[in-house]
Amino acid sequence: MIKIKNLTVKYPDGTEALRSLDLAVNEGESIALMGSNGAGKSSLLLAITGIAPYADGEIYVDDILLSKKTVADVRQRVGMIFQDPDDQLFMPSVFDDVAFGPRNKGLDEKETVRVAESALEELKISHLSSRVPGKLSGGEKKLAALAGVLAMDPSNLLFDEPAAFLDPGAKRRLISLVRDLDHTKIIATHDGDIARQLCSRVIILKKGSLSYDGTPDILDDLSALEKYGL
Ligand SMILES: Nc1ncnc2c1ncn2[C@@H]1O[C@H](COP(=O)(O)OP(=O)(O)OP(=O)(O)O)[C@@H](O)[C@H]1O
Ligand SMILES: [Mg+2]
């Protein structure tokens, strides 16, 4: 569950990425976050994970108000899958990458192995376990990064452009795997297939403000999309 009240993100150079945004995402809901380049999608996702030092307003994750005191707790509840998986994968093997979070959380070795193996199995990538993350294909990297996030057992998932760099087959596989996850999800995307197939609700940002909040039917209405800034 994610609730945002009066969120403004203003960068030091004066760019206002988000302006007085209100948004509530219910538990188990999956929403597509859309909007043209620079509309504020990534800024919103970063703010929810507490990586936006220039944010002002209230962000609640599972009813916990994000603050300096709660940021560690909030980060356990929110898993972010970055647009570029190279930003996320840094260990010498896929297994170590997926095991990094649980190990860091203090799980013992046996439990760490169990959790990491089960995340790899869930995404059907156990065969990649001993591979070097940097040498995987784009689609494989995306799934490895997602496995690392799932291993942390967050209740909310934030995706920034999950379809970026994926060929049509990899995109279809990702969609079917993500559809089976029952987390609360915010998916920032320019991709209509992702929005239609994974989300029951579409939010469109325009210059940092909410311009549309409704069903994915909007995606079939070109003149309305234009009006809402897409
Ligand atoms: N670190 C930063 N410093 C200054 N301005 C920034 C910074 N990060 C983002 N911005 C600006 O904030 C605005 C929103 O950017 P953001 O990355 O959130 O957009 P976006 O919707 O994710 O766009 P895209 O579709 O291109 O990924 C843009 O005008 C951008 O130039
Ligand atoms: Mg972005």
What's the short story on this structure?
With 230 residues, this protein is of the alpha/beta class.
What does this protein look like?
It is built from eight helices and ten strands. By secondary structure, it is of the alpha/beta class. The chain has one domain: P-loop containing nucleotide triphosphate hydrolases (Rossmann fold, 3-Layer(aba) Sandwich), CATH 3.40.50.300. A six-stranded mixed beta sheet has the order 6-7-8-3-9-10, with helices on both faces. Helix 6 (168-179) links the parallel strand 7 and strand 8 (184-188). The chain is globular. The model has no long low-confidence stretch (mean pLDDT 95). The structure holds adenosine-5'-triphosphate and magnesium ion. Magnesium ion binds at residues 41-42, 160.
The largest sheet has its strands arranged as: 6-7-8-3-9-10
- What is the H-and-E element order? EEEHEEHEHHHEHEHEEH
> Which whole number gives the mean pLDDT?
95
Can you tell me the CATH architecture?
3-Layer(aba) Sandwich
Assigned CATH superfamily? P-loop containing nucleotide triphosphate hydrolases
| Total helical segments | 8
What is the alpha-carbon Rg in Å? 17 Å
CATH topology: Rossmann fold
Helix content: 25-40%
Poorly predicted regions are none
Q: What is the CATH C level class, in words?
A: Alpha Beta
Largest sheet: 6 strands, mixed
Q: How much strand content do the residues show?
A: 25-35%
Helix-strand category: alpha/beta
Q: Ends: how far apart?
A: 27 Å
Shape: globular
> Which small-molecule ligands are present, each listed once?
adenosine-5'-triphosphate, magnesium ion
